[in-house]
Amino acid sequence: MMNNNTQIVTEDLKNIWHPCTQMKDHETLPLIPIKRGKGVYLYDFDDKSYIDAISSWWVNIFGHVNEHISSRIKEQLDTLEHVLLAGFTHKPAVNLADKLVNLTPKGLDKVFFADNGSSAVEVALKMSFHYHRNRGENRPLFLSLTNSYHGETIGALSVGDVELYKETYAPLLISCIQTPVPKDQSEESAKSAITGLEKILKERGSEISALIIEPLVQGAGYMHMYHPLYITLAKPLCAKYGVHLIADEILVGFGRTGTMFACEQANITPDFMTISKGLTGGYLPLAITMTTLDVYNAFYCDYNEHKAFLHSHSYTGNPLACTAALATIELFEASDVLGENQKKSAYILEKLQKFKELSNVKEIRQTGMIAAVELDGYAPEERIGLKVYQYGLDNGVLLRPLGHIVYFMPPYIITYEQIDTMIDTAYEAIKGLL
Ligand SMILES: Cc1ncc(COP(=O)(O)O)c(C=O)c1O
Fold first, then answer.
1. By the 8 A CB rule, do 36 and 65 touch?
2. How many whole angstroms from 248 Cα to the centroid of ligand 1?
3. Which residue pairs from 159-164 have beta carbons closer than 8 angstroms and sit at least 24 positions apart in sequence?
4. DSSP one-letter string for 352-395
5. How far, in Å, is the centroid of ligand 1 from the Cα of 152?
6. Residue from 218, 251, 288, 367 to probe ligand 1 pocket by mutation (most atoms less than 8 Å from CB)
7. Ligand 1: centre distance to CA 168 (Å)
8. Distance from the CA of 31 to the center of ligand 1, in angstroms?
9. How many angstroms separate the CA atoms of 282 and 388, rounded?
10. Residue 378, Cβ neighbours under 10 Å: how many?
11. CA-58 nearest atom, ligand 1
12. Which atom number of ligand 1 is nearest to the Cα of residue 57?
């Protein structure tokens, strides 16, 4: 007899090709069909619950089925579901743009809409290249940090440096070189990486349109973390060579690293900032590339001068998604989310100390509401991440390690008791590998 889960899984596998998956794995690894969500919990079709310790790929910052966001979207649904944004506009887009200009670092005054993180990165890359071209300069090269990840469309993949995603497509990619990411969270490492950046900019600065970085935390790059000093020093250095700084805050934006945006900790305003993921509280796809008046003005002229930025997506600035984003920002305004997060992240760090007793744990690191446990001594073929994932699911916690990195990026509404369950389950999973 099939249970409720098996039935939907069988139907799924008939037709669906899942992302980031070797589909053959599902001959032995069961898919988890989710029927509903509430708060930090997801529930399958047999009503088993799972704590979503990774905010469903880092998006659900206020958990699932949040009453406020849901009700704001329902209202909008009966007013205007969509209209194109070329030649037309609407209240949710206008209000959201106004909020974002006030919320992001001073000087990011222009808001360009897209509909997923990779597209926002494409927009930033194209705009930067085009800015230089509009000013009579040819800068066909981009610079990014080693170990970086910026998405998987061709441009975004080109500026990434995680081999797993990039290697196969190398012949298709646009020109990009890497400069070393600081090797750890110390100030010394930040300064030493700046020396590397200075050398590259000196040699090739005039060919480079922009340096793109993930501020403070490289997410898909195994939750690697570095000191804000690197960004503080990189910004004026880039400016000296006329190179834009693109801060990709798609993962780290909206409070994840302890401040609303990670760049605030470096006290700089980048030339471009890309945001997505937490922007809509995990409800709807939306992404934004913010930039400065300087960039905007380089495109502003008579039509026949052919300098306009002709980039568009069908769902650009979708009103439902903008409303979800406005509702998400209202949740930040309604209570001291960042203050509460600070207490929760201190509690998480304290709980993680006991992991140091385990001989397979190499390092514990944390930035705000991101914590990672790095395991040591395993070959990639052992797929220990998969074992931890499976243990987590069996015990009601959705952990999705990146290789040998077990990490926690829970919704901000997680309670202390739920933190205990999440971390104790991961501890048992890691201990069980010994
Ligand atoms: C830093 C960063 N940039 C860009 C992206 C791409 O976003 P999307 O998956 O929405 O295309 C991601 C996704 O994980 C990311 O972490």
1. yes
2. 9
3. 159/121, 159/125, 159/212, 160/220, 161/221, 162/220, 162/221
4. HGGGGGSTTEEEEEEETTEEEEEE-S--GGG-HHHHHHHHHHHT
5. 8
6. 251
7. 19
8. 23
9. 25
10. 15
11. 14
12. 14
- Domain limits, the chain: 32-65+336-431, 70-333
Q: Which residues, in sequence order, are CB contacts of 232 under 8 Å at separation 6+?
A: 266, 267, 268
First to last CA, the chain: 36
Q: Which fold has domain 70-333?
A: Aspartate Aminotransferase; domain 2 (3.40.640)
Fold of 32-65+336-431: Aspartate Aminotransferase, domain 1 (3.90.1150)
Adjacent-strand bridge partners of 373: 364, 406
Handedness of CA 378, 381, 384, 385 (dihedral sign): positive
Closest ligand 1 atom to the C-alpha of 220? Answer: 16
Q: Which atom of ligand 1 is nearest to the CA of 249?
A: 1
Provide the token pair at 352.
Answer: 């993680």
Pocket of ligand 1 (CB under 6 A): 116-118, 121, 149-151, 214, 219-220, 248, 250-251, 276
Instruction: Give the distance between the most distant pair of CA atoms in the chain.
Output: 70
CA 150 / ligand 1 centre spacing (Å): 5
Given a contact cutoff of 8 angstroms between Cβ atoms, the answer to whether 393 and 52 are in contact is no
| Six token digits for residue 399 | 């952990």
Which amino acid appears at position 252 of this protein? Answer: V
Closest Cα to atom 6 of ligand 1: 151
Q: Is the pTM of this model over 0.90?
A: yes
**Per-residue pLDDT tens digits of the chain, which is 434 residues long:** 458 899 999 999 999 999 999 999 999 998 999 999 999 999 999 999 999 999 999 999 999 999 999 999 999 999 999 999 999 999 999 999 999 999 999 999 999 999 999 999 999 999 999 999 999 999 999 999 999 999 999 999 999 999 989 999 999 999 999 999 999 999 999 999 999 999 999 999 999 999 999 999 999 999 999 999 999 999 999 999 999 999 999 999 999 999 999 999 999 999 999 999 999 999 999 999 999 999 999 999 999 999 999 999 999 999 999 999 999 999 999 999 999 999 999 999 999 999 999 999 999 999 999 999 999 999 999 999 999 999 999 999 999 999 999 999 999 999 999 999 999 999 999 999 99
